[in-house]
Amino acid sequence: MSEQDVTSTLIEQQQIREPGKIYFDELDLPDQLLKAVADLGFQYCTPIQGRVLRYTLAGHDALGRAQTGTGKTAAFLLTLLADLIKNPLQSERYAGEPRALVLAPTRELALQISNDARDLAKYTSLKVLTLLGGMDYDRQRQLLRSEYADLVVATPGRLLDFAGKQDVFLDQVEVLVIDEADRMLDMGFIPDVKRIVRMTPPRTHRQTMLFSATFTPEVTNLAAQWTHDAVKVEVEPEQATADLIDQKIYITTTDEKVTLLYNLIQRDHLDRIMVFANRRDQVRKLTETLKNHHISCALLSGEVPQDRRIRTLEGFREGKIKVLVATDVAGRGIHIDGISHVVNFTLPEQPEDYVHRIGRTGRAGASGISISFASEDDAFALPEIEKAIGRKLNCEYPPQDLLEPIPGR
Predict the structure, then answer these.
(1) pLDDT digits (tens, 9 = 90+) for 385-394
(2) Selection from 194, 216, 230, 181 nearest residue 332 by Cα
(3) Domain spanning 238-403, CATH architecture
């Protein structure tokens, strides 16, 4: 897209402004970023972007409560990319010294953030480097030693590994982002994150943004240690989620769940569906069962090697895999448009995980359907889920045709 095309697009947008919306061209963003945003088809900010960017673009630290699907990734990426563009380095630089660092708890989320960063930085000369476990270690090390990395997106373990071998140095980090801090806590990464933060400049000499789906006392305490006079922004996505997603609860028995899922997929000809279960063994067994009944599916859990996880996600994104069966940790960082249905094969034990699960569908303004199976084993979780989303869920018995025996079973 030429500069003239971008200008024409912006003029058209200005003529049909929606009241109450904050448009990207109203913000203090460099032209290179505005061009990239226009290419992606975005005109105005999501609620968290509108509330955060006015502060972070002015250099303030930020503490944000927001979940995936709210636009928080673009909020912190636009901030740090704008900072790097507006403040080019005046001194000599070295390989392995990033100017910005984003920490993510899972490999999938780190990859997604890196892809988004490259999309936004495509009209700049800024270099994005991804450091994560399960991928080619030597290749990552070679890139660290041979190229200038403006932004490093990393999972904590792999970053510490390279830092320990003096392949990466964090003393020049100008912007630090810690994404999904609550999940970092859940996964036991906080000691590693603390070590990493200590390697960066003091909080008064860097800009820090921390995002979390929940503000637990632990998260709030960490934010107080790591940020300086941070603006606090909380976005409630649940009501928007409830508006966009048709949420059903089917009352069933544990033994009927597989039959119910099979018939649901076959009857409605579902071709892009995510199914969540609480444990790895449940995910593994369910995947095997669906495959035995000739349903194209794959599993995603922490025990799956990273290279296979990436191939699985690509196959799902391209429509080669119809059903993705996942645990919460593996599924949390997945951002794939066009997922029509999310099925909770087992209800999550933590109510916030319900919001994360159903948020895989109904993305980018599209509608979606969430179907949860509630049995004697997990129905106890419903009251807390309803409290978390601020609404009563309608529980019903499934239609009889969804309980018809699976052929050949």
Answers:
(1) 888 787 888 8
(2) 181
(3) 3-Layer(aba) Sandwich (3.40)
